[in-house]
Every structure is written in structure tokens, then in C-alpha cells.
Amino acid sequence: MNSITSGHFYKNVMKTVEAAGQLIHINPNALERLKTPRRSIILSVPLKTDNGKLLNFPGYRVQHNQTLGPFKGGLRYHPHVNLSESAALASLMTFKNALLGLPLGGAKGGVCVDPNKLSQGELERLTRSFATELGPFIGHDKDIPAPDVGTDSQTMAWILDTYSKEYGYCQTGVVTGKPVEIGGSMGRLSATGLGVVYCIEKALATRDQNISSATIAIQGFGKVGLHAAIEAADLGGKVVAVSDVSGGIFKADGLNLPDLVAYVKENRFISGFPSSEPITNEDLLELKVDVLAPCALDGVITTENAGKIKADIIVEGANGPVSSNATNILYENGKMIIPDILANGGGVVVSYFEWVQDLVWLFWTEEEVRNKLKKIMDASFDSVWHFAKEKNQNMRISAMSVALQRLEKAMKLRGQT
Ligand code: NAD
User: For a substitution probing ligand 1, which of 297, 300, 305, 322 has the most ligand atoms within 8 Å of its CB?
Assistant: First the structure.
């Protein structure tokens, strides 16, 4: 076993891949190809700090599969970033893009660094160094990065600028999740959260429930969690609890989202928000709500706490928040899990829209983007739901099965099996 495949997260993803592969009787050669990434790039990312010291941070880009199109996936800045985590996330991108019917492969990467400890100038220099090292491996027709944990539209703007300078021409299609002023798409900021909410609506509908009568708890108040909360509240959902790295807050009759967003803008973190009760991240996961959306990090629901989860529906806004053993416990307890490759697919769908708009230099309105996103999310949910009903399987295995069927067909056509 090598350092790519040895991590818990990677093993968890591959357990689902093996189980789904067995269910659909996948060609063993296709499965074998999908079990390891095509390329794993390890980089040294130098940063000259504000006090003149040179530090090297480990950087990674794992390109898992490009059967369906160019590699695509986010860049993460977080102290836990490592090769195996990047590989797990890259493989999830392959399966997500296949499930959503996008002409894209899967990749992921990042830098093992705590961005909260860097000044804005240091962040820019680190990002430009990373872009230089990544340069030979990315491009609008090769590999297209996007924001993930700890990175944002500004990070993408610096990568675009560095890449374009070194290339000699403006290359807007090299990254997605850019500011709209420099080739970004309308609706990209809220896309992942909005996709989570479309999935919540569809999941509730399978139980004859409506979002306007649902209570919702959301872990994580970043690019995914914040927008999921706003969009859910806009549709009448009662968001009773949210959290971030500083802790959580609870209000039984629903949090005031506009006030909370303004508070976080000013104070950076959620904790201390008035007219709410403080709770821990652990408490939030165990609340009695209709819908729980873990939208922060992976591995937050494990065999340790799975038995204590009271929500009926768990929607994986984050990648890998529920371990595979915890998944089994939740299913035994009658819970419905909307898996990450479906639930958080809204981000890459609108990234795909952004890439297309950049390639043709024609830009869509926010309404167009939201309507097109809804069509893809609803159709993807339906394909997974129908597979689950027909084969009497859970949604995680069903989502992976639909993705594998599409990949297997494409691999066969390309003569890869
Ligand atoms: P982000 O950095 O914008 O936000 C992360 C949030 O999680 C922050 O509120 C942070 O305070 C919180 N957090 C960090 N550590 C925590 C902890 N230990 N306990 C509780 N909360 C904690 O990141 P994001 O882009 O919102 O990504 C969140 C998840 O969604 C990740 O798993 C990411 O891979 C996944 N995802 C993101 C996108 C996207 O478009 N950004 C798309 C698909 C999936």
C-alpha cells in the first residue's frame, strides 16, 4: 500500500467504489483503472514571508481520471492537506462529474498551510508560487482548478494572472470560481449551497415534505454552508443551527440569516452571535432536525457518533463528511443520506458553465445559470433515486453506480478497458 491509497478517506471512497462496482458487474479492468489516480504531482511551494524568511510548503495536484474530459477540481489551503486526501478528493471529482453528466475528469490539490496565519501579501505570494509550479500541468484544455476549503475567488484571480503572464496571453479558462469582473460566472459563489438546497427539496419531496415546513442544521459557514443557509431560508426553511470552526449557535424558531451574515462579515466567526444559544459542533450534528447538512470537513460523522444522529435526512454538502461504516449505521437507523458526489455537485456544474462561457466569450445572466443548474441537479437526483428504487439500494451506492456505469461506457468506447 502506498501513501496515496493509505489514508482513511481514500479507503472510504474506494469501499463505495468496490461495492457499487460489484453491484453493476463492472468490467474489472475499468475498476482497476479507477482505483488509482493517473498522475500525482508533489510540489514544493516557496514563500518569502513578510519578515524576509523563506519557507517551503508542500503542495499537491492529483489528476485522477480524464476519460470524460479535462481534469477538473478544487485547490485547498489547509494544514491537513496531504497526498492521500488530495487523491480521495480527486477521485470524488471523477465520480461527481460522471454522475452529473459533465464532460470533465477529476482532479484535486492544495497546499499544506494554515491560510489564517498568513497576511494578505503572503497569501498572494504563496498562491503565485503555487501557480508557477502548477503551470506546466494546468490549462483550459488540461486541468482547470477552482476554489475549495481556504481558497476563494481572489486566489483564482492570482492564479489566472500568474498563469497568463507566464503563458504570454490572457487565459481566463484556466481556472473557475473567478470574480465575475475577470471572466467568472454569475451565480458561481452560491452554486454549491444552492445545489445542496435543490437536493434538500428533492429529498424532502420523497417523504411528502416541503422545505417550508422543515428544520435544518448546517455545519460550516463558508462558501458552501453560508449559501446553503441563505438559499434554504429564502425558500422558507427554518435554519435552526449553524456552526464554523469557532463553534455553533442554535435558535429553535430559526436564525435571522441576514443579521448573521452581517455579524460574520464584521466579526469573521459565528460565535457570540446575539439572540441565539451557543452549542458545540458535536451538539449541532446530534440535533433533532429534519435535515442535517454537514458542509465543513470530511470525517465528522463516524461510528463514534453515527448512532446519536437524530436528523432524518443527511445532505453531504462537504466531501466525505460521513465515513462508510457510519453510513451503514445511519441506514440501519432509517436515515436518508444524499451523498457528496450528488449533494455538492452544484459547484462544479456552475464551474463547468463558467468554463464554457470563458471558451465562447459569451456570458449568461444569473437567472439562466440558476435555471440550468436546477435542471442538472434535479435530473441527477432523479437518476440516483430511480436506481435506488429499482435495485433496492441506498443513495450512496446508487449515485456511485450511476457514475461508474457512465465511466465504464466511456472507457470502453475509448478502448481503455
Ligand atoms: P470554506 O473554507 O469556504 O468553509 C469551510 C467552513 O468550515 C468554514 O466556515 C470553517 O470555519 C468551517 N470549519 C473548518 N474547520 C471546522 C471544524 N473543525 N469544525 C466545524 N467547522 C469547521 O470551504 P468550502 O468551500 O465551504 O468547503 C466546505 C466543504 O465543501 C469541503 O469539504 C469542500 O471540499 C466541499 N465542497 C466545496 C465546494 C465549493 O464550491 N466551495 C464544492 C463542492 C464541495
Answer: 297
- Compute, in angstroms, the gap from residue 92 CA to the centroid of ligand 1: 16
Active site residues: 108
d(CA 84, CA 87): 5
| Residue spans of alpha helices (H) in 257-339 | 257-267, 281-285, 324-332
Where along the chain do its domains lie? 38-173, 191-343
Question: Matching CATH topology for 38-173 and 191-343?
Answer: yes
378, 384 Cβ separation under 8 angstroms: no
Identity at 87, one-letter amino acid code: A
* The CATH number fitting domain 191-343, selected from 3.40.640.10, 3.40.50.300, 3.30.565.10, 3.40.50.720: 3.40.50.720
Ligand 1 pocket member 297 (CB < 6 A): yes
Please answer whether residues 8 and 398 qualify as being in contact, where contact means their C-beta atoms are separated by less than 8 angstroms: no
Q: Would you tell me how many other CB atoms lie within 10 Å of the CB of residue 20?
A: 24
Mutate to test the pocket of ligand 1, among 192, 230, 279, 301 (most ligand atoms within 8 A of CB): 192
Instruction: For 34-48, write each residue's pLDDT tens digit.
Output: 999 999 999 999 999
Each residue's pLDDT tens digit, 251-306: 999 999 999 999 999 999 999 999 899 999 999 999 999 999 999 989 999 999 99
Residue bearing the CA closest to ligand 1, atom 4? 222
pLDDT in tens, 2-33: 688 889 999 999 999 999 999 999 999 999 99
Architecture, CATH, for domain 38-173? 3-Layer(aba) Sandwich (3.40)
pTM of the shown model: 0.96
Ligand 1 atom at shortest distance from the alpha carbon of 248:
20
190 CB near ligand 1 (under 6 Å) = no
Closest-lying ligand 1 atom to the alpha carbon of residue 225: 26
Tell me the DSSP string of 213-265: G-EEEEE--STTHHHHHHHHHHTT-EEEEEEETTEEEE-TT---HHHHHHHHH
